[in-house]
């Protein structure tokens, strides 16, 4: 209404003095309204702060008790803390809970719904991973086997569609990310550390009569995570399905629930995964791994019982793995 009156002065024939009085009254009204709103907002903010403090502060606060897996992870973190990264020498970067993404095509399908119904399209996959910690380097780890190494055993081929497993189709933002941007000099992966979620806890699987799935959980986590990490590293270097890698990409992973540890090494030998690029491709991506072993037997009153030196030694061996040119004669022996 005020805007209408102000724009209609010429029609209602007000004198200049009356117009000035109306403008002044409008400004005073706006100032009073603004101050009233500010006082109301301040009162609302104070009330919300008071109520939130009352709600969040119990009369006798008790610190949350960490879970057994968190206690175990803290123990492991103390054993391989940042100061021990000096074992790797210079050119090392450590990430904490940094995301890793990888996007690729594999196989084909016929679209059954929508305006593209009946067309043949590539099946698209996306891995979004978040390792607990990861170590990146400015140089590559040495290869375990040659690029065109022929695997001596028969590898089963799984032709079942993922959404029948079930791995349900979802809409993701297609992304490729190793934990840093392309300009970062620390563009090669060394080792990832993964903490298994509580829903895959060993005791829980035993209660569900799924003892045969315990080691599968470790292997599946390692294969998916290391494939995504090494694949993203290769794409950062300019390789893709139509321009396959000319050198292997190697990374390591430690999978743990806080007590049991498994160790895996992965070598990416090919990115030719599409239906067209994989027709005459003899290369295979290879993963080596161990069975899970306990780092300790139990923790009683902050005292570790039955510590397993072999698991700690394996962690040290992983950290001592370096690029060839950085290896000292002592390490080679």
From TrEMBL:
<keyword id="KW-0689">Ribosomal protein</keyword>
<feature type="region of interest" description="Disordered">
    <location>
        <begin position="20"/>
        <end position="72"/>
    </location>
</feature>
<dbReference type="InterPro" id="IPR010793">
    <property type="entry name" value="Ribosomal_mL37/mL65"/>
</dbReference>
<dbReference type="GO" id="GO:0006412">
    <property type="term" value="P:translation"/>
</dbReference>
<dbReference type="Pfam" id="PF07147">
    <property type="entry name" value="PDCD9"/>
</dbReference>
<dbReference type="GO" id="GO:0005762">
    <property type="term" value="C:mitochondrial large ribosomal subunit"/>
</dbReference>
<keyword id="KW-0496">Mitochondrion</keyword>
<dbReference type="InterPro" id="IPR039982">
    <property type="entry name" value="Ribosomal_mL65"/>
</dbReference>
<protein>
    <submittedName>
        <fullName>Mitochondrial ribosomal protein S30</fullName>
    </submittedName>
</protein>
<keyword id="KW-0687">Ribonucleoprotein</keyword>
<dbReference type="GO" id="GO:0003735">
    <property type="term" value="F:structural constituent of ribosome"/>
</dbReference>
